[in-house]
Amino acid sequence: MVDCSAPIFAAGLNTALLGGHHAPMPSYVVLIYLAAAILFALSLKWLSTPRTARVGVLAGEIGMAAAIIATLFLPEVRHYQWILVAGLVGVIAAIPVALVVPMTAVPQQIAMFHAFGALAAALVGTAEYYAHGTALGTSTLIAIGFESLLGYLTFTGSIVAAGKLQEILPTAPMSYPFQNFVSIATLGASVIAGALVVLYPANALVFPIFVALCLLFGVLLIMPIGGGDMPTVIALLNSYAGLSASAMGFVINNKLLIIGGALEGSSGFILSMIMCKAMNRSFVNVLFGQVQAGKAQKADDIYGGNIKSVNAEEVAAILDGAIRVVIVPGYGLAVAQAQHATGQLFNLLQERSVDVQFGIHPVAGRMPGHMNVLLAEADIPYDNLKEMDQINPEMENIDVAIVNGANDVVNPDARDNPNSPIAGMPIINVDKAGTVIVIKRSLSPGFAGIPNPLFAARNCLMYFADGKKAMLDIIAELEKL
Amino acid sequence: MVDCSAPIFAAGLNTALLGGHHAPMPSYVVLIYLAAAILFALSLKWLSTPRTARVGVLAGEIGMAAAIIATLFLPEVRHYQWILVAGLVGVIAAIPVALVVPMTAVPQQIAMFHAFGALAAALVGTAEYYAHGTALGTSTLIAIGFESLLGYLTFTGSIVAAGKLQEILPTAPMSYPFQNFVSIATLGASVIAGALVVLYPANALVFPIFVALCLLFGVLLIMPIGGGDMPTVIALLNSYAGLSASAMGFVINNKLLIIGGALEGSSGFILSMIMCKAMNRSFVNVLFGQVQAGKAQKADDIYGGNIKSVNAEEVAAILDGAIRVVIVPGYGLAVAQAQHATGQLFNLLQERSVDVQFGIHPVAGRMPGHMNVLLAEADIPYDNLKEMDQINPEMENIDVAIVNGANDVVNPDARDNPNSPIAGMPIINVDKAGTVIVIKRSLSPGFAGIPNPLFAARNCLMYFADGKKAMLDIIAELEKL
Amino acid sequence: MDANLESNLFVFALAAFLGYEVVRRVSPQLHTPLMSLTNAISAISVVGAIAVTGVSHNPALVVVLGSIAITAAMINVVGGFLMTDRMLKMFKKRTVKPPAHSPGQHSPQPQEPNRG
Amino acid sequence: MDANLESNLFVFALAAFLGYEVVRRVSPQLHTPLMSLTNAISAISVVGAIAVTGVSHNPALVVVLGSIAITAAMINVVGGFLMTDRMLKMFKKRTVKPPAHSPGQHSPQPQEPNRG
Ligand SMILES: NC(=O)c1ccc[n+]([C@@H]2O[C@H](COP(=O)([O-])OP(=O)(O)OC[C@H]3O[C@@H](n4cnc5c(N)ncnc54)[C@H](OP(=O)(O)O)[C@@H]3O)[C@@H](O)[C@H]2O)c1
Ligand SMILES: NC(=O)c1ccc[n+]([C@@H]2O[C@H](COP(=O)([O-])OP(=O)(O)OC[C@H]3O[C@@H](n4cnc5c(N)ncnc54)[C@H](OP(=O)(O)O)[C@@H]3O)[C@@H](O)[C@H]2O)c1
Questions:
Q1: Structural domains of chain A sorted by starting position, each given as residue range(s) with its CATH number in brackets
Q2: What's the CA gap between A276 and A103, in Å, rounded?
Q3: Catalytic pick from B229, B408, B413, B466?
Q4: Which of A275, A351, A413, D15 could lock onto A417 through a cystine, CB 3.0 to 4.6 A?
Q5: In A101-137, which residue ranges form alpha helices assigned H by DSSP?
Q6: 3-class SS at A385?
Q7: Chain-centroid distance, C-alpha A168
Q8: What is the pLDDT of residue C93?
Q9: Beta-carbon contacts of residue D95 (< 8 Å; ≥ 6 apart)
């Protein structure tokens, strides 16, 4: 028979130390987990184009459902009453929220979902610690440390981010003396507390302190960052939440968790990179709530005497003679909830045989792809939504460009003035169109806080109004023609 | 202390049964293997464009070197004299071959390298069997079975494929009565023998029989397939060799082998798919050596009285008046070794301010990308090598298309005649150019064995000559002008 | 190195690489649904929450923490998938109305382009 | 399921998926070097050959088989990488000669395109 010889025994010991307190999984669970992992990867793959995107969501849902059901069949799972009640509460809480949240509030809603996901990951780490405490091996304790740190900081960080996006919390970058020092000291303290947990797992005091420090660090990390940078931050928190789930996978030795978490970890990371690149800012820059140095021109120097303002009737007359029109939406469109009115104008113009395209800047609005979601909500076919690189070469053949609530993403200074704070950020070249009509409520600046020479350009007309009202008025005037 | 309790013990037992006869690896070896695996994936990723391709090769080489060195440091590795001598013999044997093999012989050389790689995988499986035989668990024995089956069949199969490509073996599809039955019966017998190995590992007879059957099956599988299908077959054997290495990874529980093998497994599979698609043939079709049904038109009906033939002087005169020229190379260019002469013509035309592009069909020649390698050898910048989809839309603006040794890939029947045996295969639309000059030795058909209505087209001129000689003669005439 | 840790490291590295390759192909117009979908997927931690809650010999504190984790994770799962799908449902290939259909990329009546 | 088998299955599935994603982006003009490179990489079986040859208590037959395997695998490794690099060295971005440089995509002298 089999003897308990040294190498075998050592292998058994290792298994016991790292996740080995979980019984080996039955084969069918492993195979279902494997299938779920592949479905998750396929799900992201299929999301790459609108044509297959919904199949992708379905794949993700099936993978998730299969994984949950398989887990319920694990032999060691017993407390079904707790599990089912807790699960049901979650489902019932989520459905109405997910179905009614307005599309303009998607960023903060994603942040809130994150907060819950990260909380779950952190709580599982905590539970593992309290369930097995001293019996855990060093590497497992380290993994629990990562899981908790990332989970708890993402939890509070995401709540702060959501608060800023919903404007419950002040959106301005909040800075106070020694701000970076305090943040880094808190992080340092959390890491030390975490190390103490690993070294003295039996000490009842260090774990709660560790948790408190992590929660605090999440707040300190996000609080100083300005509201406009929140989307980048959310993508980054996305990444942290994923890494936390991955760490949990290391703790309980579950490959599906590792894969799901790693997929999100890299996805969030890439997205925040893409956003930084599209804004021409560095990562560190965003994270430390700094605004890029550079001398913006004085508003009065630019605007003084050069602003030509129009009303709805005049805009309608201009549109009546146009053949090719480009609409460039921006954050103001979301604020004004003007997507449906914009859709109506689109339909009206199309009925009048005008060729209408949308020019979508990658960081228009407050999160990547924000404008696409809003315009899709207004039933605008996505074939008519053109990316920056597609629309720019056409711009010289465009008769009228309508800028609705966008500002920084059409600021020619970014292209032409190397001293501008947003120099180098690629823009949509509306200034190259025949006529530009800019709809916004005032001459106040956009997210970057700098004036926009476009407004004073020879071919630019300002229509000062709320984005939605402006659209509806233009439609009314156009219908009279 | 730790007790030898049931679940822990079970885990230890499993470890012993599956790959557990190898001592656990030192951490640094594991980390180097992990780095090597990532380098392999990066290597393929960087190969995606010519700009980064050589960095990709370097990454692969570093990964491989690191993995080999780390393996030499494994504690259980002892017989250094054997290892070093054997390795050195391999290195010394490979270098001259790799450096002198002509670019036209690359397909068969790849097949030969395959044969060696697959042999190595199969021999390791065999060695594992003889080293641990009866002590191996069922799943390990199954993995050894896969490793040996795939390894040995790829070994003989690749040699046959190389022989056909080198035309040492007859290139025609060799069929004999009950051919498919014999092949499938041999496969069945190998599988049965493999099952017997798993069931009765102690029996000294079954393993050699199993090996012999696998070797035989490799020959029977490839022999009936025509020489022109060899590239597809080689891609498929590529895939098998990878899967065999992966199976070895399962046997000795080495993740690096699993990853390296899986990367090649999917790569070979995709490539054979791409080739089948570009030829509009089904996979099964290729594998069973079948030629697609369909009625080719009679050659005499098409060609009779419609062939206009030209000589080098006339071609030079036509080129002298051309502004935009496309050269479409085919298998004949490789046979004639005409790449350098073609490069000279390219340079000469460019010096005369003619815009010269190459139109590369994905299955021109006898392996994917074959033409690119040949033309690159002749120093033609790859920016001037256009893919089929890039060149076709331009074809109507091209003055002269020179077809050098291509036939099937410019056969308009594939596009226009739904009854053609190659109907549906995408082609390069040279017939849409102003004038087409086709260089080949005769009116004999290409790989698909069917006549080509292009040769009888109004705007087509035939220049009957060897591909290289034709190019040199045209150059000589052009230089006189 | 411990065999589990070893294999987990390989799995993590491969999955992160795969995620990178897959996600960077996602069209920018779908970046918001992407964030929402990966968010839902990372709530796979519900599996861990169930495993930790379910074990019968665990102390009450652990079961309570686990149950809260299940609720939180399920909110993320269900909310994330539903919201993603709701967004994607809005992405339409073309409007069905015939007048909106015909103009397409270029104006149907051949007219001289005029500027402004 | 045995833990090793489990993790090996995950690793295999992820690597195959990753290979698929990476390889299908490879430009068709590089398909031959690709075949040659993956061929070289799959000769990673040399690692297995070394491991099996090296173990001191293995019977002579095993050591001989292993040594042949090492030789065969090394031929594949060295030959594969060298040949791939030799092919790729030939891929040039642009010829350096100035006359060949200027014509580029379009003919430099503005002339009417004539046909044939
Ligand atoms: N998308 C992302 O992922 C992301 C992430 C982080 C940061 N950002 C930053 O956000 C900015 C986005 O640029 P953007 O051009 O879309 O927006 P923006 O530069 O922030 O400008 C928005 C404009 O909308 C106007 N507006 C506000 N409410 C309005 C209403 N109800 N009706 C009409 N107009 C209204 C504002 O002017 P009035 O007040 O005069 O009306 C403002 O000038 C960029 O600087 C980008 O770097 C984007
Ligand atoms: N690339 C791949 O991966 C791959 C794989 C498998 C199969 N195939 C098949 O191979 C074919 C490739 O098409 P293709 O157009 O390149 O070649 P092809 O259709 O096989 O025709 C080659 C032509 O070259 C001519 N030729 C031979 N030696 C020559 C020489 N010394 N000088 C000048 N011409 C010479 C031959 O005509 P003469 O004898 O009259 O000179 C022949 O018509 C396709 O049918 C494809 O499906 C390709």
A1: 107-291 (no CATH), 299-480 (3.40.50.1220)
A2: 23
A3: B408
A4: A413
A5: 106-132
A6: strand
A7: 18
A8: 56
A9: B347, B379, B380, B381, D101
| Cα A362 to ligand 1 centroid, rounded to whole Å | 13
pLDDT value of residue D116: 35
Catalytically annotated residue among A229, A300, A301, A408: A408
Asked if residue A33 lies in contact with residue A255, where contact means CB atoms within 8 angstroms, the answer is yes
**Using one digit for the tens of pLDDT, what is the confidence trace for C67-88?**
999 999 999 999 999 999 988 8
Higher-pLDDT residue of B168 and A258 is A258
Q: What's the CA gap between A241 and A157, in Å, rounded?
A: 11
Tokens of D98: 């100035």
Residues 6+ apart with CB under 8 A from A46: A52, A53, A55, A56, A59
Share of chain B above pLDDT 70, in %: 92
Angle between helices B255-279 and D45-54 (to 10 degrees): 150
Collect the ranges in chain B with pLDDT lower than 50. Answer: 1-21, 292-294
- Angstrom CA distances, A350 to A343, A355, D109, stand at 10, 6, 42
D12 in contact with C, Cβ within 8 Å = no
Chain A contacts in chain C segment 30-69 (CB below 8 A): 30-56, 58-59, 61-63, 65-69
Question: Is position B413 annotated as part of the catalytic site?
Answer: no
User: What's the distance, CA A281 to chain centroid?
Assistant: 17
Quickly tell me which residue has 């009202």 as its tokens: A469
pLDDT over 50 at A167, yes or no: yes
DSSP line for B403-452: EES--GGG-THHHH-TTSTTTT-----GGGSSEEEEEESSS---TT----
pTM of the predicted structure, to 2 decimals: 0.83
Supply the pLDDT for residue B300: 75
**Prediction ipTM score:** 0.83
Using an 8 Å CB-CB cutoff, list chain C residues near A252.
48, 51-52
Cβ atoms of A433 and A421 within 8 Å: the answer is no
Closest of B72, B105, B63 to residue D77, by C-alpha:
B63
Q: What Rg value do the Cα atoms of chain D yield, rounded?
A: 24
- The answer to whether the CB of B279 is under 6 A from ligand 2 is yes
